[in-house]
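ping. complex inputs:
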Amino acid sequence: MIHFSPSLTRLVGELKKLPGIGERTALRLAFHILRSPRMGRDLADSLRDVSERVGFCSLCFGITEDDPCCICSSERDGDVICVVEEPQDLLAIERSGAFRGRYHVLHGALSPLNGIMPSDLKIAELVRRLQGSPVREIVLATNFTVEGEATALYLSGLIKPLGIKVTRLAHGMPIGGDLEYVDVATVQRALEGRNEL
Amino acid sequence: MIHFSPSLTRLVGELKKLPGIGERTALRLAFHILRSPRMGRDLADSLRDVSERVGFCSLCFGITEDDPCCICSSERDGDVICVVEEPQDLLAIERSGAFRGRYHVLHGALSPLNGIMPSDLKIAELVRRLQGSPVREIVLATNFTVEGEATALYLSGLIKPLGIKVTRLAHGMPIGGDLEYVDVATVQRALEGRNEL
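pong. complex structure:
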């Protein structure tokens, strides 16, 4: 469309691949970037930085630049592991300040209709972590969606036989809600009121 | 906030500088990019490309990778120049297909309250272009906002004494509207019904 500049057309195309960014917004962002070349360079640098430096912890699969991550290599309580769907959910729990244990990030939730099966998630890795470990409680903090609940149920069936207590965040969470977007106080109440499954 | 990764924190900071992108959206975009490193690299490449290759035409100040731009170096009608505020406005006129002349991009509109004076726009460059040129009509296509109207009036007073016909896009445009967002048919009607000032 912008036949005046193939580079700009390409940038608009790349921006449009981002979630929630359509043609109009992409064009507006591209022109904004064009107007301040320094912003474009800074953004390019930090994108490159992220793709080179940021990875996932080989233990908990949370986001980290060092492996293992700062939580896994910390002195934090190794008795309790909180299982979440996505790295941003881990951040939501951390923000609440109500949890001092460790984490395990599944990188998704079970969704057979969309072809997401247990082998697509970091479930085998979780079970391996539990074997011969001193873990005495797993807090299932998957989202309160159909997929999140199914994943919690599946994990509960897998982990309970190992003799480990399995709890779920209390229903302070709104039904159908997404952990990432819930306010801190609700996350705190949900953690405090967690129930054994 | 994401003390797990300074790079990611920096990326969120850079994304937040874009118009209409807040903390939440920036975080969501950053996590999306993290999930597909190729997208991050492609976006970084095209940002770099744009900042290196794309500039403004030294004649019309539209966007271009070559100087002069493809319109200024084309065989198009040199008798009529359409004056617009922003490069994206030039695109809006081009999209309508109703104009076959040349352009001049002001890079803004007069706004004394915001400290934007004639010397901040490409007005001197426009007047220079007109001196000793065969231009017989200037179509003022600044936006129909207070600033755009003021700019049109100012330019009209500047150009008419040069013996050049000055026209304004017809009021097919919605009052208070922004050229960039108007539908093609309206832009066409506005061009067809342009009036002498």
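Chain A touches chain B through 56 residues (CB under 8 Å).
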